[in-house]
Amino acid sequence: MRRRIVAGNWKMNGTVADLATVAEISAAAKTAACEVVLCLPATLIRPARNLVGMELGGQDCHARAAGAHTGDISAQMLRNAGAGWVILGHSERRRDHGESDAQVAAKVQAAWEAGLTVILCIGETEAQYRAGETLDVLAAQVAGSLPEGATPANTVIAYEPVWAIGTGLTPAPEEVTRTHAFIRARLSDPALSILYGGSVGPANAALLRALPDVDGALVGGASLASKTFLPIINALEIAHA
Ligand code: 13P
Question: How far is the CA of 166 from the centre of ligand 1 (A)?
Answer without folding.
Answer: 6
